[in-house]
Amino acid sequence: MTEPVLATPIPTTDPRVARAIDLVWREAELLDRKEYSVWNGLYADDGIYVIPIDPETEDFAATLNMVYDDARMREMRVRRMTEGYAIAAVDAARTVRTVSRFVPESVTDSEVVLRSAQVLIAYKRGRHDIWAADLLHRIRLSDEGPASDQVALKVVRLVDSEEAVPAAGFLL
Fold first, then answer.
1. Cα–Cα distance between 104 and 14 in angstroms, integer?
2. Would the pTM count as exceeding 0.85?
3. Which CATH number is 76's domain given?
4. Confidence band (pLDDT; 50, 70, 90) for 92?
5. Which Pfam families does the UniProt record give (predicted)?
6. In terms of CB atoms within 10 Å, which end of the chain has fewer, N or C?
């Protein structure tokens, strides 16, 4: 029996990968600080933010998801999180997230596909909740430099996605 040949891993020290990781970390910081409008600005106009229920699905448009947001839906979600007397805004949890275990899947001069792990601690009403997920980001690299890089796709695969998930009151 022949051992499978593993592809040579792409180093996280590759400058394009480092740019993508920096953007993912910036996104995490903005979400923890509840700077949702700035967070939304990280996304490409055609960018998608998705939290699938099925842990194996790749066809997000044809399957049921907890969240499947294009630009219009992200904008509506941000408004709901920031304006008026919405329970999502008024009673939002405080969060601290760690994103690590970066594994580049593919790298070109215009795009990096990056897998990582996220552990999020949410504190609300005297209670801590743990949210764990595998993330996939497709980052578009801009010729204008790192400040113009954008998220084309973010997939949040919760480890317990097939179980009943409580209302979050924050973005993953």
1. 10
2. yes
3. 3.10.450.50
4. confident
5. Ring_hydroxyl_B
6. N
